[in-house]
Request: fold
Amino acid sequence: MKTMFMTGACSALLAVSCLSQQVWKVNSQGGPGSHFTDLPQAVAAASPGDEIWVYNDVLGPGASYYTAPVIDKPLRIKGFTVTPSGSGPTHANIYGPLVILDIPNGQRVEISGLSIVALSLALPAGIVVLDCQGDILLEDVYLDNDGSPTTFARFERCANVVLRGCALRLGGYPVTVVDSQVLLTTTAIHHTPPIVWGPPLAYAATTEGIRVINSTVTSVGSVIWGAHRVQTPWGTGNYGSQPAVVVESGVFRVGPATYLLGGLNPPWSPAPAHGYHVINPTVGSIRQDARGTIVNPPPTPSVFYEYIAATFHSWVVANESFGVTVIGPPSGFALMLLGDWQPNTPTPLGMLDIDPTTAFLVDVVPLSTSSSSAALGGVYAWTLNCPITAPIAKAFAFQALTLAPNGTLGLTIASPLTVGWPHGVTP
Reply:
């Protein structure tokens, strides 16, 4: 591991930052400089390409709560808490379903720092992304559940959705991906037990973590749980342990540093549910890099092993340190780049996900050699320090060019990022 100060990268971040047409400020407390007191008003007023800052002002006279918007144009939205001190990312709270739809090819929506919850047991909360041929980045977005059946996440007919550093706590419905391509990177999916009062206030059955339907889902550096078995005084047969992933059709790719864990079975059996279930192996499959982990895989169908090179990172907050990891060919080399996020440009070396005109060289390093198997190893990790002057909300990405011992060049899966608001600074 190498610790570096991003003095040069700071210049790169500032250089690649494209100013948005307008920055709108949303603060439920009002006050000087704010434009709106709720988020849907700001979304309605914003023009394509604008940026919206959502304040969770804990220092104000009351808590900050916002209504989840419907987004049908390219925007950047950043939520944060105004705090005098602390560390790590902060969020603004929104209630209800966040809906993104009809983003055309060549456009994007970038959302970070939002925590989505239900206003009451009877009202829905969730993430719904529909009919987007453009790029959708959800970073550091939390979805919470209180054991009721009103929380959901669904991605349908979307060309490129990235969940980076998200935490989704489910209840009664899996994350459902239909006719889409989705990347999960450093994201956690787990489940809340049903609420103690039982249905209809409680959800009616446990579920898997993700259901894949005619889609490709790739997971890097993430943890995906199936629901645990729950003992209840009602409907016990509906609350068994569940696999982490169910594939109806399409492909789920278990990338490096990913864990698939079926739900546990307390108190009678310590054995968890299988890590995955493929309903029909003629139309669905699991592909696994050897550096990913599937706990208790089923006897059939077997996984298809696939080499997957990836870059991933922890949260990035201005004026704080963070970690970046590359996993590539064992005993090879990696050239780490940082630049403007510009996904899915095909090249002979793989998909390029950064704008080459903004790319900044972070480091060139040797990758580790495995002591047990040629399929393992290939890892290098950095600790970097993000400057306080780095722009927030704008999407950048880390991506590595790798060189294998046999001379083969390749590009890793990229790790997009937005910079979190610095603690101790009032916008």
Q: What stands out?
A: The CA atoms of residues 40 and 69 lie 5 Å apart.
